[in-house]
Amino acid sequence: MIYLYIVLGIIGGLLLLFLLGLFVIYHGSFYTPHKNQNDDFALTPATEILGINYDIIKLIQAILDVPYVDAYIKSFDHKRLHARVYKNKKSKKVVIMCHGYRGTGIRDFSGAGKYIIDKGYNVILIDERGHGESKGHSITFGVREHKDVLSWVNYAYEEFGQDIELILMGISMGAASVLFAAEHLPKPAKIIADCPYSTPKEIINETIQTTLKLNPRIMFPIANLSLIIFGHTSLNQLDASKSVKNSKCKVMIIHGDKDTIVPHQFSERIYYENEDKVRYELFPNTDHGVSFVTDTKRYKRILDEFLEDK
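-> structure tokens emitted (310 positions)
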């Protein structure tokens, strides 16, 4: 009998170690918030290497000076979500902006967001779940986030009227989220996706392979299991290309050809499978999410063309 207890003890210890390992993976990859995550001025090392920190800080300071009102809604799973709302009663155009993974709306949209506000549009600058003032502790790479986008869409119609012209705009994870939401929108909308990926699985695999130098065939199921256990969500769902195909939305995808986080080939697949619906704009010598800063004149021009096109 004592040998049975020893075996059970060993099995139990190994299981505990395995669960501890899963939690470490979950905490590092999916748990939110992390230190400095909600600091609008916490820039990435990549922007410093590119020499654009000063430019981004100036843009952040400028958008922080713009008056706004706070808005709060309940998510589909009863979490309190927050957004900054910039209102213009003279306009019927409403833009919902969705920032990226462990980003902030202010930082990610300090350029394009301020430009669109200055154009006179209404802007809903959201805090993704688990970011800023929005509740939640799991990042799900668009699986739950795209449902939050749909909740903000409902808010937009209730707040600004059923006759609004709706635009969804996202960066990185936010870009993927607005694309995932496309096929579920109550009415056709325009969508601007800046450096999106097409599936949650592909971006996780990319990180595992290029950043961690590990085998994604082995590590992805383990990472996904950690999110299933601790975040109650699986990444084995959603495809932006299929969502766009099933929608009636006009889409513009923006990507840098030197993106070190989300390879531009991910967004190209969405484009090539939906050329009749998607406009694709590739920015040369541009890293992740900084196209507005690297070529501001072109970025503003394509925004104007897309937003004002009937």
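The mean pLDDT is 94.
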